[in-house]
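User: Sequence recovery, please. Input:
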């Protein structure tokens, strides 16, 4: 494999930080607010870039002010941009409390009409290809159908959760979080042993490798018949927004470099943990040297 391609969503994120999350009908005073680019696709592309690999990002924006902000941010990152334009730029409203918990409402905007027809000449070979599910599922299926026979490794984050068997069965690695893994496996996950059972069910069901992101409890890797648990890297989290995206991007980056899934999972665990120590999604994503320093210092 020679490249990483990220195909997915890009939003503008409006983040409100407050002491507590509001309940239904409640107004809570925010202490701070932030305006940053986000979206699972863009987040993963930035995570790849910051952890040492120059990816190509395929996404769709609106012809509006927010698109200008996003493009200016992304141009500062080490990535190739394949951007098309449609209706209004997607937007996410994110409430974050001091514990790091968050609530998110997403307006898809131009992400919702992204199509493979926007990229008629796309040819992807011998690459790691990252998908998420904030663009139409048909678009993902169409991309997979076009690229799956070309020596590519397809990594799919089934978030926001929808079970699409074609996508999951044609992915080489599925990376659900704990909630998504419970839904895919049809069982509760209350312990690491539960996660192992869920992973086995998911692997058997979709014939794909599985990595379950367990947040503050680390991650579980079920790859080529070997099942391994990786402990978390402990930090004081202030905002968990984008941590799962950071995990996926860092995983792909290290896997392209080394081909070692165990080292890649450990690398991704640390990167994702570090991302929770700052506000916003990719503004808080760490760089390769920060993660390597921790791995080598263990």
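Assistant: Recovered sequence (298 residues):
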């Amino acid at each position: 494999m020679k490249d990483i391609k990220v195909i997915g969503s890009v939003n503008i994120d409006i983040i409100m930080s407050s002491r507590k999350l509001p309940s239904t009908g409640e107004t809570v005073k925010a202490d701070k607010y932030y305006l940053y680019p986000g979206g699972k696709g863009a987040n993963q592309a930035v995570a790849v870039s910051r952890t040492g690999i120059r990816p190509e990002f395929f996404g769709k924006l609106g012809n509006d002010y927010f698109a200008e902000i996003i493009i200016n941010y992304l141009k500062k990152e080490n990535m190739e941009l394949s951007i098309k334009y449609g209706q209004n730029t997607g937007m996410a409203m994110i409430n974050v409390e001091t514990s790091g918990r968050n609530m998110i409402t997403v307006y898809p905007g131009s992400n919702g009409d992204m199509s493979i027809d926007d990229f008629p000449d796309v040819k992807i070979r011998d690459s790691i290809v990252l998908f998420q599910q904030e663009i139409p599922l048909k678009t993902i299926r169409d991309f997979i159908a076009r690229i799956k026979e070309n020596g590519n490794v397809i990594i799919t984050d089934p978030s926001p959760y929808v079970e699409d068997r074609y996508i999951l069965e044609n992915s080489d690695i599925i990376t659900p979080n704990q909630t998504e893994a419970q839904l895919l496996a049809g069982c509760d996950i209350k312990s690491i042993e539960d996660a192992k059972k869920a992973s086995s069910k998911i692997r058997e069901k979709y014939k794909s490798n599985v990595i379950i992101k367990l947040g503050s409890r680390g991650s579980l890797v079920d790859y080529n018949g070997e099942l391994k648990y990786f402990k978390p890297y402990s930090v004081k989290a202030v905002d968990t927004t984008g941590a799962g995206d950071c995990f996926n991007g860092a995983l792909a980056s290290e896997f392209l470099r080394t081909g070692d899934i165990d080292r890649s999972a450990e690398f991704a665990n640390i990167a994702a943990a570090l991302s929770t120590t700052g506000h916003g999604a990719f503004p808080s994503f760490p760089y390769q040297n920060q993660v390597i320093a921790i791995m080598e210092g263990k």
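Residues 44 and 249 are 5 Å apart (CA to CA).
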